[in-house]
Amino acid sequence: MRDTFCLEWDQAHGAKLVDFHGWRMPVSYDKGILFEHEATRTSAGLFNISHMGRVRISGPQAYKLSQYAFTNDLSKITIGNALYGFLLNDKGGIIDDVIIYKEANDRFLWIINAGGRETDVEHLKRLAAGKDLTIDVLSDKTALIALQGPKADAVLKRLVTDVDLDKIPYFGFGRGLLQGKSAFLMATGYTGEDGYEIMVSVEDAPFVWNLLTTQPEVTACGLGARDSLRLEAGLPLHGNDIDDQTQPYEAGLGWAVKLDKEGGFFGKEALNTQPARKLIGITLEGQNIPRSHYKVTSEGQEVGEVTSGVFSPSLKLGIALAYVKTDYKDKPLAVDIRGKAVPAKVGKLPWVRHVTKSKGK
User: Fold this and answer.
1) What is the DSSP letter of 274?
2) What is the pLDDT of residues 282-322, one digit of tens each?
3) Where does the chain have alpha helices with state H?
4) pTM recorded for the entire structure
5) What domain range is 330 assigned to?
6) Which residues contact 269 (CB under 8 A, 6 or more apart)?
7) What is the per-residue pLDDT across 25-68, written as a single tens digit (0 to 9) for each?
8) 62-69 and 119-127 are packed helices; what angle lies between their axes, rounded to 10 degrees?
9) Which CATH number fits the domain that encloses residue 311?
10) Rounded Cα–Cα distance for residues 243 and 88 (Å)
11) What is the count of structural domains for the chain?
């Protein structure tokens, strides 16, 4: 397994470490997942997400490649803003879901998932063949830290200089100094809360992490809280809810696909806008928890499968994302838990969202 800059800190603070896509990462620290979840919803949670990948594409044809490789439309945003979208294979399957930050008209920062650090770059290099551009993999040169929650803004404001955080919109970014350390500050996250994802050099990461963990509002959090937070926010996880066999419209993510954008995009021709199954959010009453791979039924007939499930600390009930046959998504549903059909209610996503920053363009 590979380790991030944070291993020694993790070991010193009661981290329960697991293998996550080949990285040794904390599930939680000594106070546990529920404490970390609540701390993020009410104050500020700090997550080490350095296992994710960072790639900068620059040069005269950087825009042409990024626009063609990406399902969303980069022509619709200005410098200083970002978009969510997908890298597709030739069958329309989601190689990865990514965020692209437009640093300049010829420079784009891609944030990719841990499982895509190699496959994404290989795919981009194939599409870049013969083009005048540079693909710079920053993953091992930088670290990525997420500060999320209603007090994240106040914490950063007393620590950063050379940037006005109030002028960074949701899905925007800026550059500043964190106690003298250069930081790329992105108003994005994976929790349904306001917050920032912060990219710093790998050399500066231990200082920045220690600085943030010593702030009274901040609680260090692991993958367990990150998962329950993102599920409450209705956000898919690549490898669970979406993968290279899944198309965006199946996952209810067609809003991040711009079929009419100039020049099209790789994988467009294979897309099905009327899929046979749909990703939905469901809840179960009582203490029932829908887990990944549990079958979804309707009147005794199997019609789908849970992809991610958890007991929601905020809602105090079991929640899940599940694929069901399109014809059954509005019919009575149940989840098969050890042979018992537990009634399931379809919920409107997201269940929890507290983002207050306005969106940029």
Assistant:
1) S
2) 999 888 999 999 999 999 999 999 999 999 999 999 999 99
3) 7-12, 33-42, 62-69, 119-127, 152-157, 205-213, 223-232
4) 0.97
5) 276-347
6) none
7) 999 999 999 999 999 999 999 999 999 999 999 999 999 999 99
8) 120
9) 2.40.30.110
10) 10
11) 3
